[in-house]
């Protein structure tokens, strides 16, 4: 089977030789042992273990018609709405196991996007070189169960200028040399989730382009362990606690990271190039990918919401207020918001459509954008309610070191005690978990900016929703003469560029 265990994934990371990874200005030799990156390795590892764990293997495995074997779902090409539903459910379940972002979704969405885009170019224009290269790459990924990152967001320079207009020509990743055996690329991608702990990275265009931007309209895949690749890991809230490597404060459990991915004249062989100077297809590429990724947020963010609601309820029980009406009301509101995000993602999945003659299952674009737009708002409200329930100690609790000081521990156990049946240490552990989950990149900032900022979803919703159609419906009911042709569609939605 094309399946690796979590331990095999970790061992594979230790064999890399060329990649340069920097944390806090210093080069990292072994990501599996570095205190800043170990939590990310653990989180990524959970996606491999899920294919073997009894409670997730049914969701985490799928049959691949491309290699005729069972593969990890994180490298699977969706074969129908059921697969898209399984994606959302798996992400929610995995969030219960990790309590953070498990970082493998962007690469997965990139695979499915490339399957559709290369297939559509072959169908529309008869050019099969891209799809043939991609299918061979897909087989390689599935047989080896590779950990993939997806890199879409360029550094962008001056936001009002197109790639070709930038004063810094490398503000978008571009081709600087074309050779017989491949291309040479230069530039950087920003905010790349999990980038330091993957086997390979798939690079994608970040926006619609014009013919003048052709050198920037590229998509390719390379091992992270490729000469000329540099990774600079970004900072997060309370990240220095990782160096403490404590049992409570030092993030001993799983966590995520993001980073800058820099290409310094990196060579990419032609067999790894899936999209080159295809500026006409760049906008559709971004649309297909973005909607896949927006749909997925329903799973991971509702799963993290479950963790936050659980921690809030646990703290309320330890303080003896879990049954109070105002606490019950807050918890109910949190559950409502959480399930609303999840429900929208399931709707986007069940209402999927096929973009290729032979497959290419894509999410419902309206419901995918609604899902992500809910995610830009509801996690902040869920967190606010959680902080309300937890109390001020969420931001002022004594440290783990204080708790382990033999002189202080008896006093802290006495004065942090709530309901007697619960040890004070349990309260501290839940406070730290709630702090690290609810005030995090993975739950808050990523919810706003991941897969596009809120305005991107609003523009998509505006384009898809047919205001003229609903005006005709209203006019007809109001007795105003209007020419309204028979329409079998229930939803007043226009086709997206991808569907066209």
Notable characteristics:
500 residues; alpha+beta; Butyryl-CoA Dehydrogenase, subunit A, domain 2; Butyryl-CoA Dehydrogenase, subunit A, domain 3; 2 domains; six-stranded mixed beta sheet; 15% strand
Protein model, in words:
The radius of gyration is 24 Å and the shape is globular. It is built from 17 helices and 14 strands. The strands form four sheets. It has a six-stranded mixed β-sheet with strand order 2-1-10-11-7-6, with no helix packed on it. Helix content is 46%, strand content 15%. The longest helix is centred in the middle third of the chain and has 38 residues, at 282-319.
Q: Summed up, what is this model?
A:
Keywords: FAD, Flavoprotein, Oxidoreductase. With 500 residues, this protein is α+β, with helices and mostly antiparallel strands.
């Amino acid at each position: 089977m094309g399946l690796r265990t979590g331990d095999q994934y970790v061992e594979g990371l230790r064999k890399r030789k060329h990649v340069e990874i920097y944390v806090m200005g210093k080069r990292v030799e072994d990501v599996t042992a570095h205190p800043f990156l170990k939590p990310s390795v653990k989180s990524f590892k959970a996606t491999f273990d899920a294919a073997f764990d009894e409670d997730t293997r049914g969701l985490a495995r799928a049959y691949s018609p491309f290699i005729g074997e069972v593969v990890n779902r994180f490298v699977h090409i969706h074969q129908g709405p059921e697969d898209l539903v399984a994606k959302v459910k798996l992400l929610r379940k995995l969030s219960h196991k990790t309590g953070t972002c498990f970082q493998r979704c962007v690469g997965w969405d990139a695979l499915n996007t490339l399957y559709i885009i290369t297939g559509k170019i072959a169908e529309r224009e008869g050019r099969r070189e891209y799809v043939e290269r991609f299918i061979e790459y897909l087989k390689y990924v599935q047989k080896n169960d590779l950990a993939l990152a997806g890199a879409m967001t360029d550094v962008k320079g001056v936001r009002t200028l197109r790639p070709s207009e930038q004063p810094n020509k490398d503000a978008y990743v571009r081709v600087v040399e074309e050779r017989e055996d491949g291309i040479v690329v230069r530039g950087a991608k920003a905010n790349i989730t999990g980038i330091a702990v993957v086997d390979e990275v798939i690079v994608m265009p970040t926006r619609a382009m014009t013919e003048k931007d052709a050198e920037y309209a590229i998509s390719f895949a390379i091992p992270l362990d490729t000469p000329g690749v540099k990774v600079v890991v970004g900072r997060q809230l309370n990240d220095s606690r990782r160096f403490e490597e404590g049992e409570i404060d030092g993030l001993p459990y799983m966590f995520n990271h993001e980073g800058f991915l820099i290409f310094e004249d990196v060579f990419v062989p032609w067999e790894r190039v899936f999209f080159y100077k295809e500026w006409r297809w760049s906008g559709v590429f971004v649309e297909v990918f973005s909607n896949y990724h927006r749909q997925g947020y329903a799973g991971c963010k509702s799963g993290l919401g479950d963790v936050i609601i659980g921690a809030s309820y646990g703290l309320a029980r330890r303080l003896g207020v879990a049954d109070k009406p105002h606490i019950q009301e807050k918890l109910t509101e949190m559950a409502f918001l959480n399930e609303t995000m999840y429900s929208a993602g399931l709707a986007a999945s069940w209402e999927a459509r096929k973009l290729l003659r032979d497959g290419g299952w894509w999410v419902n674009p309206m419901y995918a954008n609604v899902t992500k737009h809910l995610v830009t708002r509801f996690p902040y409200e869920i967190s606010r309610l959680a902080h309300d329930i937890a109390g001020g100690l969420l931001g002022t609790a004594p440290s783990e070191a204080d708790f382990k000081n033999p002189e202080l521990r008896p006093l802290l156990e006495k004065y942090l005690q709530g309901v007697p049946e619960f040890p004070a240490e349990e309260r501290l552990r839940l406070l730290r978990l709630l702090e690290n989950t609810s005030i995090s990149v993975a739950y808050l900032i990523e919810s706003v900016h991941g897969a596009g900022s809120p305005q991107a979803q609003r523009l998509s919703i505006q384009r898809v929703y047919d205001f003229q159609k609903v005006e005709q419906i209203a006019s007809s009911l109001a007795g105003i003469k209007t020419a309204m042709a028979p329409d079998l569609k229930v939803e007043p939605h226009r086709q997206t560029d991808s569907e066209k």
